[in-house]
Amino acid sequence: MTDYQCPKCGVRSPVESLAWRCPRCHGPWDLDFTAAPVSLDSLTGRVGSLWRYEEALPLAATEATGGGPGAVSLGEGRTPLVPLTSTVTAKLDFLMPTLSFKDRGAVMLAELARRLKPRRVIADSSGNAGTSIAAYCARAGLDCTVYVPAATSPKKVEQIAAHGARLELVPGDREATARAARSAADEGGVFYASHVHNPYFLHGTKTYVYEIWEDLGGRLPEVLVLPVGNGTLLLGAHLAVEELRAHGLIAERPALVAVQTAAVAPLASAFHAGADDITPAEAAPTLAEGIAIPAPPRARQILSAVRAGGGTFHTVTDDRIRAAQLDLAARGLFVEPTGAACWAAIQAHGLEGRTAAVPLCGAGAKTGVAAGG
Ligand SMILES: Cc1ncc(COP(=O)(O)O)c(C=O)c1O
Ligand SMILES: [Zn+2]
């Protein structure tokens, strides 16, 4: 296995150490890992999960096989591309096993945890990441505890419990939950399956772009529109773009167009102010709860990734999100309000006729139709 490496101060730590963040600056880790090229021709007939991109992944699926059970999987990935207009294609990541794109990252964390054999796995989330980690830990036979705010919607709490994870209901806001999880994560023998801090999660979400590349016959659209709260899908997409470029597998970088909710938009504000880092935002209610993150720890990386491809940030109001959710439903696609934010951004801001892929990355079945209007 490889090392964690701090992008800010260069500190390294072996993955086996279970250190969940840089001990010097307390920032999130990157992974000291170089992906090998994936050959389009070699993909035919491979396993129908994200393990098909084995060369590009920091955990080798075949290594895990070694006569025993293969790498953890619930058949995630290979989600369909469905055209919305003549230039914009939707990628239906709400069809993943637990109904959101988070499964791409959760499968990597569960497989990593299975190899590290920690005393227990913990995670914190108010939504899709927690249900995904709980499901993949169940699949991997791992003891898992999920910290959630006490006010989390009963449906999500029910799903986490149904997967056999222990629940810690924390009074107060999302930050109070994160604090409780972080102090548990500092205990010995605990693997903190953090979608924000652990870089293996990003090497899972990057398969979103590998799949588009494969399905388009070795090409990418001119624009990738991506929702951004903590930026795990965007940073995964950036990793994949850089890897495909480094191996000469795409000619041009697509522009990353990042979408935040107007209610909580620290990254969009920093981007348009020309800043390298954010000023933390105030928490505020919004329909797009999945992307309402006042102080994302990977802010600097997100801003630099969007600038690298000549992309930009857009914000969308709740009214736009509500209309986009209904518009997608009228086309046969029922997504949660957060999952409609990117389509709302395209409708509000346009893409100047460029080809684009937009993720519909969370299912409407989990949340229902947005209230109000
Ligand atoms: C449906 C959906 N879309 C987008 C996001 C945003 O992901 P990230 O916080 O990694 O940017 C989330 C996060 O919970 C989500 O559940
Ligand atoms: Zn550091």
Automatic annotation (TrEMBL):
<keyword id="KW-0663">Pyridoxal phosphate</keyword>
<feature type="domain" description="Tryptophan synthase beta chain-like PALP">
    <location>
        <begin position="72"/>
        <end position="362"/>
    </location>
</feature>
<dbReference type="GO" id="GO:0006567">
    <property type="term" value="P:L-threonine catabolic process"/>
</dbReference>
<dbReference type="GO" id="GO:0009097">
    <property type="term" value="P:isoleucine biosynthetic process"/>
</dbReference>
<dbReference type="InterPro" id="IPR050147">
    <property type="entry name" value="Ser/Thr_Dehydratase"/>
</dbReference>
<dbReference type="GO" id="GO:0006565">
    <property type="term" value="P:L-serine catabolic process"/>
</dbReference>
<dbReference type="InterPro" id="IPR001926">
    <property type="entry name" value="TrpB-like_PALP"/>
</dbReference>
<keyword id="KW-0456">Lyase</keyword>
<dbReference type="Pfam" id="PF00291">
    <property type="entry name" value="PALP"/>
</dbReference>
<protein>
    <submittedName>
        <fullName>Pyridoxal-phosphate dependent enzyme</fullName>
    </submittedName>
</protein>
<dbReference type="InterPro" id="IPR036052">
    <property type="entry name" value="TrpB-like_PALP_sf"/>
</dbReference>
<dbReference type="GO" id="GO:0003941">
    <property type="term" value="F:L-serine ammonia-lyase activity"/>
</dbReference>
<dbReference type="GO" id="GO:0030170">
    <property type="term" value="F:pyridoxal phosphate binding"/>
</dbReference>
<dbReference type="InterPro" id="IPR000634">
    <property type="entry name" value="Ser/Thr_deHydtase_PyrdxlP-BS"/>
</dbReference>
<dbReference type="GO" id="GO:0004794">
    <property type="term" value="F:threonine deaminase activity"/>
</dbReference>
